[in-house]
Amino acid sequence: MKQRDSSAQAPSPVREAEPRAWWRRTGFWISCAAVALLIGVAVVFITRDEYVNTYTIPSESMQPGLVVGDRIEIDPHAYDNDNVQRGDVVVFDSSGSFAPYQSRTALQRFLDDMLEDLGLRADPHAMVKRVIGVGGDAVECCTANGQLRVNGEPLSEPYLAEPAPPGRASMDRFTVTVPEGRVFVLGDNRHASEDSRALLGSAGGGMIPESKIRGRYLSTR
Asked: Which of 94, 129, 170, 193 is catalytic?
């Protein structure tokens, strides 16, 4: 009687080991990718406080106080328990007012926000201006002396750039009443600033929602 060759039935240890080795290699690279992702997320959050509340001045609209290239820091919690005050210099989101809304996917928003937080990409919608009127204020240009008038009182503005022509706070004449929950903002370099005056005839009348304010100016770095 012929004996069965048991060696022919034995599985090949090499063939069995190959799938395990492949999985180990794949698992190793997956683990490396996961660790790298976690490190990247950690870096974003660690550096967020350093960059998310700083902005670079891109134009001459806030001269002489703030000049092109100045890096400013804001207080994002300034209005958590306080109201916006006339004279405050604020950074706000101009999308939907000075800048049109842009359709972006969730991934695009995430990547854009991450790059902005890391200071690797400027926020194209961030603008810095001075609050001239708050909810309920009547703002008018101009008195016989060329000053703005807020609630019937001439407004002293020592922070203004040298006006052109001298003596006028604005070349545009206007009378507006600021709705509750909004602010009327102007640049200090009044004759080289795109601000609330540019939107007087549009929806919202150039008034910025308080919810769009990202913070109050603290200092220049």
From this structure: 129
61 is an active site residue: yes
Give the Cα separation of 158 and 138 in Å (integer): 21
Query: What residue type is 68 in one-letter code?
Result: V
E-state strands within 116-192: 126-133, 138-141, 148-150, 153-154, 174-177, 182-186
Task: Give dist(CA 68, CA 162) in Å, integer.
Answer: 17
Given the residues 61, 97, 170, 196, the one annotated as active site: 61
Superfamily of domain 54-220: Umud Fragment, subunit A (2.10.109.10)
Q: Give the helix/strand (H/E) hosting 215.
A: strand 213-220
| Residue 129 is a catalytic residue | yes
pLDDT-wise least confident of 65-74, 138-147, 155-164? 155-164
All residues at 6 or more sequence positions from 99 whose CB lies less than 8 Å from its CB, including other chains: 124, 125
SS3 (DSSP) at 40: helix
Domain boundaries, the chain: 6-51, 54-220
The highest-confidence range among 7-11, 89-93, 170-174, by mean pLDDT, is 89-93
Q: Which residues pair with 129 in a beta bridge?
A: 90
Residues 197 and 185: beta-carbon distance below 8 Å? no
| Cβ–Cβ under 8 Å, residues 207 and 182 | yes
Report which residue type is found at 172. D
Q: Under a CB-based contact definition with an 8 Å cutoff, are residues 211 and 183 in contact?
A: no
Place of tokens 């998310």: 52
Provide the mean pLDDT of the chain.
79
